[in-house]
Amino acid sequence: MNSQDEEEPTTTDNNGSTKHEEGQVSDMSGTSAAMDKVAAAALRSVLQRVSQAAEKAARGSQQVRVVAVSKTKPVSLIKQVYDVGHRCFGENYVQEFIEKAPQLPEDIEWHFIGNLQSNKVKPLLASVPNLDMVESVDDEKIANHLDRGVGNLGRKPLKVLVQVNTSGEESKSGIEPSGCVELAKHVSQSCMNLQFCGLMTIGMLDYTSTPENFKALANCRSEVCKALGIPEEQCELSMGMSNDFEQAIEMGSTNVRIGSTIFGPRDRMEHWDVAYEFLKQNSLRTHRNLGIIIFTFATAQMFALCLQPKRENECSRWWKIYFQGIDLG
Ligand SMILES: *Cc1c(COP(=O)(O)O)cnc(C)c1O
Q1: What DSSP assignment string belongs to 15-27?
Q2: How far, in Å, from the CA of 6 to the mean position of ligand 1?
Q3: Do residues 209 and 225 make contact, with C-beta atoms less than 8 angstroms apart?
Q4: Which of 64, 176, 224, 305 has its CA 20 to 30 A from that of 79?
Q5: In the UniProt record, does the keyword Chloroplast occur (predicted)?
Q6: Ligand 1 contact via 260 beta carbon (within 6 Å)
Q7: How far apart are CA 322 and CA 304, in angstroms?
Q8: Interhelix angle for 211-228 vs 180-190, to 10°?
């Protein structure tokens, strides 16, 4: 399952990938070449921690895939981690993804881990032929779009995970746990160009997770496997990020998504993500309320027109007031 290789290839000379964008490495003294090795060293330490956690849980480290989450990070830095043998990377913004992926080697196994809108499916599939997995399928509509998109391109089936909202927080993407069986069934039985591979969760709204989130995802897996009649080993659990991947592995994760611990802290996102989710949720609410008000008013108008009273009628005066304002003359 693992594609990374902890040994540094001897032939690597890091050509073209040595210039650093600002803010990457702070105050380490030494040559720029040494500074460029920071992400590679961080990866190595992550892989070590992963294999220790796997051992502790009596599982092999080959059973846990490490997705290096490179969102917001420059191509040069991704190349550095690629050059020490890592092949699995994750991105979560389509626009950024389709700009970066074509500049990087084709043997990268890309995971898309972000919110996917149906109008972005086509550009995503077209720009990233080496897209290996979409971890964030959370409704039938997006599954159908992906299925059709892959079919039209005639590429090999696309692996997908069903994203589950295990925190109960309203605005987070991901399907409710109660809906995961139905969606998993839909993907595996009605989407011929998709390969259902398991379940994914982010955890809480602030991108942290609790043991309850991990347990909830494992419970979903039990139900899904029972319903589909497949062994649990055939259903992956993508859970655990920089701050909690060891615990996630001990609780059964097969796929950890690790960003900041490998690539360093991000300057943007996260807080913006949360703010964006908040705005989206609230502006949706505002739109809905506006819609209700306009609909109610329009309906009242229609009724008033239909029920237009005869001239002499007592109601006629009120009707006139309603439609023509205070014009009692
Ligand atoms: C950014 C991101 C991660 C990585 O988060 P870190 O805490 O930096 O490891 C993992 N999963 C998803 C879906 C993300 O968007």
Answers
A1: TT-----TTSS-S
A2: 22
A3: no
A4: 64
A5: no
A6: yes
A7: 9
A8: 50
Asked if residue 258 has its Cβ within 6 Å of ligand 1, the reply is: yes
**The last residue of a domain, from among 245, 265, 285:** 265
Strands 255-258 and 65-69: parallel
Domain count, the chain: 2
Q: Is residue 71 in a domain?
A: yes
What CATH number should be reported for the domain holding residue 129?
3.20.20.10
Does the beta carbon of 113 lie inside 6 Å of ligand 1?
yes
Asked whether residue 259 falls in the same domain as residue 308, the answer is no
Q: What is residue 135's three-state secondary structure?
A: strand
pLDDT string in tens for the chain (329-residue length): 444 444 434 333 333 333 333 334 444 444 445 546 899 999 999 999 999 999 999 998 889 999 999 999 999 999 999 999 999 999 999 999 999 999 999 999 999 999 999 999 999 999 999 999 999 999 999 999 999 999 999 999 999 999 999 998 775 589 999 999 999 999 999 999 999 999 999 998 888 899 999 999 999 999 999 999 999 999 999 999 999 999 999 999 999 999 999 999 987 555 555 566 566 656 667 778 888 888 888 888 888 778 776 666 677 777 777 777 655 54
Q: Is residue 42 part of a domain?
A: yes
Residue 259: closest CA among 87, 85, 39, 6: 39
Spatial CA neighbour of 250 closest among 206, 218, 202, 208:
218
Question: What is the Å distance from ligand 1's center to 296 Cα?
Answer: 43
164 sits in which H/E element: none
Same domain, 104 and 47: yes
Terminal alpha carbon distance of the chain? 85
The domain in which residue 117 lies consists of 29-265
294 shares its domain with 325? yes
Quick one: 285 and 164 in the same domain? no
Q: In this structure, what DSSP letter does residue 3 have?
A: -
